[in-house]
Amino acid sequence: MSKQNLADMIGALDCLAAAGFAVGAEWQAVHEICQAHEGEAPFDWGHALCHRIEGDDWNADYWYRRAGKRRGSGTVAEEWSVMKAELAAHL
Fold first, then answer.
1. Does the CA dihedral 77-26-11-52 come out positive or negative?
2. Residues with Cβ < 8 Å from 2, sequence gap 6 or more?
3. How many CB atoms lie within 10 A of CB 81?
4. What is the pTM assigned to this prediction?
5. Any idea what DSSP says for residue 59?
6. Range 22-30, long-range pairs (CB < 8 A, 24+ positions)
7. Tens digit of pLDDT for each residue in 27-65?
8. Cα angle at 63 between 62 and 68, to 5 degrees?
9. How far is the C-alpha of 63 from the C-alpha of 72, rounded, in Å?
10. CA torsion angle for 1, 8, 49, 14 (degrees, to 10)?
11. How far is 15 from 67, CA to CA, in rounded Å?
12. Which helix (H) or strand (E) holds 33?
């Protein structure tokens, strides 16, 4: 995993957050980044968050398991805050 790829995902997720975590162009950008890095835990976690936003809990839970994470009980925004802090520590 390159630091640049991780930074790209964080930036894309920040754009998605600014868009209110709505499914749309920003969501698609994050999803594509995550798919391009399938099998790398940070990107699988991002993939999980995408499907949580989409409302596809089964698919989200699959990606959470692949990332070694569990779906948070808080809001998507709260999960993104925790996720961003953890991912930024790897930059």
1. positive
2. none
3. 14
4. 0.96
5. H
6. 22/53, 23/53, 23/54, 27/53, 27/54
7. 999 999 999 999 999 999 999 999 999 999 999 999 999
8. 100
9. 13
10. 150
11. 22
12. helix 25-36
